[in-house]
Amino acid sequence: MFRRFGAYYRHYIDDLFFIWYGTPEDLLQFTNDLNSTLSPVRLTLNFDQTSIHYLDVTVYKDVMNNKLQTRIYRKLTDMNTLLHYKSSHPRHLLHSLPRSQLLRVARITSDTEERQKTCSI
């Protein structure tokens, strides 16, 4: 069934991401078929037709140009805290954190306006 309706598949450890072209009913049937095997692994399913969170990324469908876009996903519990500059962390770490975070935003966020908005938070 995946060969017929699945278009793209990636995983990281125990998190799966795939794009499905079938109906929601076909997706539920596919998940039930996988869960009915003798394997002790059980799948839980989160799906949406407009956006989905995967690890620290939100993948969403841009309705203006009918493309998939990505942006940073922050959990509701994220407090956007920063390391204090006078903390006991090594200096090279404190100096590299802003650059690392900006690179992360640049790599994950596909839309230029969204990237600018994220960097200004």
TrEMBL record:
Chain ranges of the Helix-turn-helix domain: 82-119
Pfam family name, one: HTH_animal
InterPro entries in the record: HTH_animal (IPR058912)
Entries under PANTHER family matching the protein: PTHR21301:SF12, REVERSE TRANSCRIPTASE (PTHR21301)
Protein name: Helix-turn-helix domain-containing protein
Lineage of origin: Eukaryota, Metazoa, Chordata, Craniata, Vertebrata
